[in-house]
Amino acid sequence: MDFRYGYRADSERNGTLSGDFMNRQANIAICPFSFPASLPLGPSIIKAFAEEHSDFKVNCVDLNAEWYNTFVDAALAGKSFVQFTPEARTDFAKAAKMFRDGGDVFWDEAEYQRLSRFFESIIRKVENVFLDGFERACAKGEYVPPIKAYAEHAARKLLANDPSVVGFSLMFREQYMPSVLIAYYVKALRPDVKIVFGGGYTSACHPSILFANPFIDFVVFNEGEGGFHALLMALDEGRTRFDGIANLIWRDPTVEEGWTKNPKSPSVDFKTQPYPDFSDFQLDSYFQPEPVFPIMSSKGCAWDKCTFCTHHRSYSGAHRAAPTDRVVGEIEHMVNTYGVKRFAFVDEMISPGRFRRISEDLIEKKIDITWYALAKPDLIYTEEILKVMHDGGCRYILWGVESANQRIIDLMDKGTTPDGVSEVLARSTRAGIHNHLFIIVGFPSETEAEFQETMEFLYDNRNNVHRILACGFSLDNGSVIFKEPERFGISRIWDVSNIATVSVKYDVEQGVGCFDTEKHAMFWKTNFFDHFEAFKGDLGLFRNHALLHYTYPERIKPVGGRRVPNPRKLKPPPYQAGRTVASDRKVLTK
Question: In this protein, which residues make up the domain named B12-binding (predicted)?
Fold first, then answer.
């Protein structure tokens, strides 16, 4: 990064830490830009573990939620750079109130659709303006005054309670540049403070990208709670070498790269892990009229075979699940501590038997909640199991369907069949559970005819499909497809080693090219997928908002007259296969 302001790297200072120096205060920042649709779970887990197993005090500081709320408040007060017509200002105020407080408009399907789309368009434009400013500041040292002022404000806020360590939790690419710039100012203001990066996005970045920033001292990858706690203990002891701390990357002047990556390891046993601590967050800062709390009952995926998936990067080792009594105990704790009654299971996948046991315990304890989760549509989801899940509070499931063409399903290694998926969706509907389906558009080597099979499957099952979540295929570094591209009809992968990104570009022999997948996804979203849905809206809010809509169906004022068009009559853009970028680009595969 080419910053204008001077900075002395840690290696230029005398700096052996000592126990007398170390202030046992650490902060974890969640930086923009990720629309605050739910409470941050990872930092809450790390905070709880560190405080239970040490004398450190850990504060979670959600700069991200603060930023969005500050912008909305400024726009409502007429102090934002966004210019509204009088009519648009009225709609923006209605939308902000709907997302924050609910009210009658939240249950009015027509108004919800209109206002959520309008609100999203404004938010996305503002995000893009600020993201461009952060990227210019980090990459070129060009400082737009609001960017510099905000980064300094955020840094001073993170330093207000005199921490010795400041961590940055990143889940998405859009948080990278803001986190880097704020971290720079933290170190410029307090050179003695140790900077730690972590989170799902950080785990996907190559260490050389992160440590190109001289003010980043450590990176915690995979599971964070054990590694972050062990790092705090090592710093408190005055250590200058950090060998042996699992899931840690640290600056090491004795090696050529300048950093050492320690082995990854499952850092925490569920039996010793305390419940997440959300006490630092203001529940009304999140854009949902009723709080929906995240809960993680397992780490890793019970299936763990999907060839396109890289979610394993967030965890260390094989799939591990907490005992069901601990899961139900955590839910009961959240109900009693925060008064919350809505939950989102964020596990990669939960087996039907495990769902049944959790639901039976919730029923037995008379814990009155509603919830949703992710799952794989296996025929082992019997009607009886789904009915128990409904009685235990399940109101909808996000099913990983992805495709309804058997060749593509087998390439994905999903372990399902179209007929089996169809039966599971019908069983779920009969049990009173709504079905949201993940669909991948433009899987490598998928032909137009094969994709059309998936569209016809959705149409034929339209009475049991309540929402479709579709996106263009993304080739992620570390997936099976990335490691074995030829098996999936990928002829070349383009080198992006100098970019802090997770996904990479590629060429295919047949099917839709990587630069066209989003175009196709948008066509089908507008002309087909959206017609399945009630309460259209994005911003990541649909998951939690959908739970509320399904929890209180009697409040809903529906649009009515919804009709799903026949996909056979639609005319999507033609597939464009083959090379899609200049032939002189450097490639990883040939």
Answer: 93-242
